[in-house]
């Protein structure tokens, strides 16, 4: 299943690169945030079919696991009962042999023999019962823990597949309002998904809602103060809102956290209001 996902991703990226090489314009302003890409319907259909196949495989695998766990429980119970029965039979054989020896050795009366036998049998049975109850309880606890681990793993896989599917749809979507809805779905699944926050802030910026983009960038910085792209996104919002000095400060922090962003400073359209500032020119040198 993992190999199939990797194959889909390789096919997806190789097709994306080929399409971009064929349709790349002569001049195109660079932007660090993700942009939407149009794909041929055949590729979209291939990806959706593969995702559907993966979900079906997930359901089959879960049913198979539950069947195996049920069989394992029955097998353990059967072995424990069989082992207990065999042990009790051996105890009774030993007791019978011992009683015969005691009678031959001249115990005072059959009443004494019976009393001793009952005492020994009760003691042995109590010890064995306690011992095997503990073993059975331990086995049951282990099976419960293992079953829960399998269920948790299945839920994690299902959650990861759902997140991956939403990211794929968001990459194909061209409408910014729809993109924001998809990013909200990602944040509903994982409220701490900083990538979803940044992409949502970028979509809000594209819609011209700079205050919202600024707020989302601040939320991302609160979650991870070392994430350079969050400062970059806030710098874009500050530049659009006219807070030029704050934008310069955020650019410096972003470059410090992620040095590769320095190559994109002069190509970022959102920084056009900063081009006449000496501090901005120093960043380019």
Automatic annotation (TrEMBL):
It comes from the Bacteria. Keywords: Coiled coil, Membrane, Signal, Transmembrane, Transmembrane helix. Gene3D superfamilies: Tetratricopeptide repeat domain (1.25.40.10). The keyword rRNA processing does not apply. The chain crosses the membrane at residues 87-107. Residues 129-156 form a coiled coil. This is Tetratricopeptide domain protein. NCBIfam families: TPR_END_plus. Residues 1-19 form the signal peptide.
């Amino acid at each position: 299943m993992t190999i199939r996902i990797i194959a889909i991703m390789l096919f997806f990226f190789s097709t994306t690169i080929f399409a971009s090489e064929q349709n790349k314009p002569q001049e195109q302003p660079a932007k660090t945030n993700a942009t939407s890409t149009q794909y041929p319907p055949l590729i979209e259909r291939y990806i959706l079919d593969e995702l559907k196949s993966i979900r079906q495989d997930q359901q089959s695998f879960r049913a198979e696991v539950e069947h195996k766990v049920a069989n394992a429980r029955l097998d353990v119970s059967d072995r424990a009962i069989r082992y207990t029965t065999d042990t009790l039979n051996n105890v009774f054989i030993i007791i019978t042999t011992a009683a015969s020896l005691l009678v031959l050795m001249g115990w005072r009366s059959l009443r004494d023999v019976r009393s001793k036998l009952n005492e020994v049998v009760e003691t042995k049975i109590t010890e064995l019962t306690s011992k095997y109850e503990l073993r059975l309880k331990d086995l049951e606890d282990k099976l419960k823990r293992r079953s829960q681990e399998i269920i948790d793993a299945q839920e994690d896989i299902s959650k990861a597949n759902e997140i991956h599917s939403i990211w794929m749809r968001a990459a194909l979507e061209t409408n910014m309002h729809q993109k924001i809805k998809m990013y909200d779905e990602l944040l509903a699944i994982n409220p701490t998904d900083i990538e979803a926050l940044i992409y949502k802030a970028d979509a809000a910026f594209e819609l011209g809602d700079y205050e919202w983009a600024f707020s989302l960038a601040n939320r991302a910085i609160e979650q991870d103060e070392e994430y350079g792209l969050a400062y970059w996104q806030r710098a874009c919002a500050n530049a659009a809102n006219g807070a030029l000095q704050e934008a310069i400060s955020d650019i410096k922090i972003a470059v410090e956290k992620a040095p590769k962003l320095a190559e994109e400073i002069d190509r970022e359209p959102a920084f056009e209001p900063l081009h006449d500032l000496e501090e901005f020119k120093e960043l380019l040198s």
